[in-house]
Amino acid sequence: MTNLRICLLTDCYPPGIGGIENHVYCLATQLGQLGHSVDVITHRPVNSNVVQQARKLELPLPPANVVVRRSKGMIAHINGADPMIDPRIIGEMRSLMRANGYDVVHGHSLASLLVLAGLREAKQLGVPTLITKHSMTLRPTLPVGISHILLNIETRIAKKWADGLIALSQAAVQEMSAAGLPVYVIPGGVNCEHWRPDPVARRRVRSSLGYREDHVVVGYLARLVPSKGGMSLLRVATRLVQVLPDVRFLFIGDGPMRPQLERRIEELGLQDRITMLGFKPWWETPGYLNAMDIFAFPSYTEACGLALLEAMACGIAPVSRINAGTREIVTNGETGYLITSDEELFQKLLELAQDRGLRNRLGTNAHHAIHKRHSWQAVAERTVEVYREIISRMRGRR
């Protein structure tokens, strides 16, 4: 079967930091390793600080058949996102689509001028188009009316510019049902050779952080924004450290809530029990995940939850708030626990902290489940199947 000429459109790509950035990078790399020719069209790095952070990432270079094309237009800064807003991207996309003869054009996000401009030009040329929906629109952190307005806009955009949709979870499929398009569920992926149980890394990182062997480390890795539930975990941590003298909490991540969390930890006098490490390069996180005994994931809304997948791939038992994405990753009582409230979060963390055998059993099950369903090779192969199905269907229509 012939290899494909694939275009991935995204505002989110390294050296940017985040789940979508990691997803597109890994997808492009794996598609290239499968022999396909891949162009990633994105924008320039946002600022020198991000470039400096990127130098620390030490990401493996993708294969030579993966080419990253960066537009140099204007970029906005909105709630931690950095979408391109330069109208000149429309003409730039017209030239790129006409010059490169893509078999399929795959956009990542429904709220991106860069993505929509590329999809529009591809549609006019008769090139099959797909959009991956990376996040949930109906979420508890937004007013209901606003959520439904945004979902209506997304649905109209998808219906106009896409021939199919890829969703990371079944819940995301349901959100987009009104678009009347074929929707394919392809979960997020993990590099299971990099994110894996690693006893050597565990000993090294725990020693560097001052943890003893008998310390039970509850870890958290996420952007420090309200929707990720960091304050919820801090409230629970404040109770748990009073009950268990050997429990420790490790927060990894950065964001606008970091000063508030640090101030509260200091007010409570818990600096020796709760450590905030700040940002750590994505490619270095396996060592920190392996240093944990339990992974807390109290995020209120997720379409998938990359950090959750990676922690489970490392064999760490998770306790996760139940939402659209996590209920399709964690099997309650078998690969971890799903909770609905801070009280349940406290009870399950307490149960796991007191039972090493239970932690080990759930962590082992979690590792096997992620390796089976979420390896990047499996995700990329399934994505190529969808590409070929969309291409075949569009050819049949013509």
Overview features:
Rossmann fold, seven-stranded parallel β-sheet, elongated, six-stranded parallel β-sheet, 2 domains, 14 helices, alpha/beta, single chain
Task: Please explain how this structure is put together.
With 398 residues, the protein is α/β, with parallel strands linked by helices. It has two domains: 5-189 and 375-397, Rossmann fold; 199-373, Glycogen Phosphorylase B (Rossmann fold), CATH 3.40.50. Helix content is 44%, strand content 16%. It has helices at 19-33, 48-57, 89-100, 113-124, 144-161, 170-175, 199-209, 230-243, 258-268, 285-290, 306-313, 342-353, 356-373, 376-397; strands at 5-9, 37-43, 66-71, 104-108, 129-133, 164-167, 183-185, 216-221, 247-252, 274-278, 294-297, 317-321, 337-339. The strands form two sheets. A seven-stranded parallel sheet has the order 3-2-1-4-5-6-7, with helices on both faces. Strand 9, helix 9 (258-268) and strand 10 form a beta-alpha-beta unit. Helix 3 (89-100) packs across helix 4 (113-124) and helix 11 (306-313) crosses helix 13 (356-373). The chain is elongated. Mean pLDDT is 89; it is low at 50-55.
Q: Name the poorly predicted regions.
A: 50-55
How many structural domains in the coordinates?
Answer: 2
- Supply the CATH superfamily name of the largest domain: Glycogen Phosphorylase B
Just give the CATH class of the largest domain: Alpha Beta
The H-and-E topology, N to C, reads as EHEHEHEHEHEHEHEHEHEHEHEEHHH
Describe the sheet with the most strands: 7 strands, parallel
Strand order of the largest sheet: 3-2-1-4-5-6-7
Radius of gyration: 21 Å
Provide the CATH topology of the largest domain.
Rossmann fold
C-alpha termini separation: 21 Å
Query: How many extended strands?
Result: 13
Assign the structural class, choosing from mainly alpha, mainly beta, alpha/beta, alpha+beta, or little secondary structure: alpha/beta
Overall mean pLDDT stands at: 89
Sum up the overall morphology in one term. Answer: elongated
| Relative helix content | 40-55%
CATH level-two architecture of the largest domain: 3-Layer(aba) Sandwich
List the total number of helices.
14
